[in-house]
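Contributing new records

If you add data, match the layout below exactly. Sequence lines come first and carry their own label; structure lines follow with theirs. Keep one chain per record. Anything else will be rejected by the validation script.
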Amino acid sequence: MGRDEAVVVADGRSAKAYAREHIPGAANLPHSEISAESTASLDRSKHYVCYCDGYATEGVDAQVGAEITCGC
């Protein structure tokens, strides 16, 4: 990934946790809702980097593919 490539920070926690606090500018993309259907409208020219609280996130990459990197 180059310096000029677009990156979107995604908060993989619940909407409730996101509302409590989140990284400024982060989009809320709850890991429990990530699927091929729910991510169909994402801009594939951008890289999505997901952060979360580390609970129940196994399989996120397998469901969606390389478009989302979840380091939980």
